[in-house]
Specification:
The protein has 197 residues and is α+β, with helices and mostly antiparallel strands. It has a single domain, classed as 2-Layer Sandwich (60s Ribosomal Protein L30, Chain: A), CATH 3.30.1330. The chain contains three helices and nine strands, in the order βββββαβαβββα. A five-stranded mixed beta sheet has the order 2-5-4-6-7, with helices on one face. The protein has a four-stranded mixed beta sheet with strand order 1-3-8-9, with no helix packed on it. Helix 2 links the parallel strand 6 and strand 7. It starts with 18 loop residues before the first strand and ends in a 14-residue tail after the last helix. The relative contact order is 0.24.
């Protein structure tokens, strides 16, 4: 799994087993031994790092925004793009230098892996690009779109990101799980303990 934008050996130098980032999660750390991992279909994961303080994290969200029909008493959840992006950026700024100019942002996912999910992946990819542009953040690197799922592995301390594009055999199961999750979007995010594989 080569580092994004790099060629060479497919072996990533992981110190230990990665921490799985589930939909709605937003872990942040400055520990050099920590690696985060997630699997994405139409979902988006952003990796944000403070290059000065070497603090970073990863989020994972399903949809750009809650539909009006699914809004509930729990309000916005980390499963939705704007909230997930603001939450991650604010957490990294809070634990880091507090300077937006020190942020390094990389974004992944947004695959159109099943015709039954009518271009949700493309809409998610468009959302994250537009969000970064509107907020004045530089997109350091990306791997968005396509018709495949991907595994993303991220080392917050170093800022290294690794992407493995997954073969199409797993796309149908991943797409079914995402459709089911989207249908349950009115439920509280904290009750959702599903990891997409």
């Amino acid at each position: 799994m080569p580092a994004l934008g790099q060629t060479g050996s497919a072996r990533a130098p992981f110190g230990g087993p990665p921490i799985n980032v589930h939909q709605g999660d937003c872990p942040v750390t400055g520990d050099p031994a920590v690696t985060y991992s997630t699997v994405l279909g139409s979902c988006i994961a952003a990796c944000v790092r403070d290059r000065k303080k070497l603090v970073g994290g990863m989020n994972h969200f399903l949809l750009a925004a809650q539909s009006e029909s699914s809004k509930d008493k729990f309000g916005e959840s980390a499963r939705y793009g704007a909230f997930a992006m603001e939450q991650l950026i604010n957490m990294v700024l809070g634990q880091g230098s507090g300077d937006r100019g020190n942020l390094e942002i990389k974004v992944f996912g947004g695959g159109n892996i099943n015709a039954g999910i009518t271009n949700v992946g493309s809409a998610n990819a468009d959302f994250v690009r537009e969000f970064l542009m509107a907020e004045g953040y530089r997109n350091f690197s990306q791997d968005l779109g396509g018709r495949f799922a991907r595994r993303v592995v991220y080392q917050p301390f170093s800022g290294r990101a690794f992407v493995k594009r997954l073969d199409s055999s797993g796309n149908e199961n991943l797409a079914r799980e995402e459709i089911a999750l989207a249908g349950r979007s009115s439920q509280r995010a904290a009750t959702d303990d599903i990891e997409l594989f």
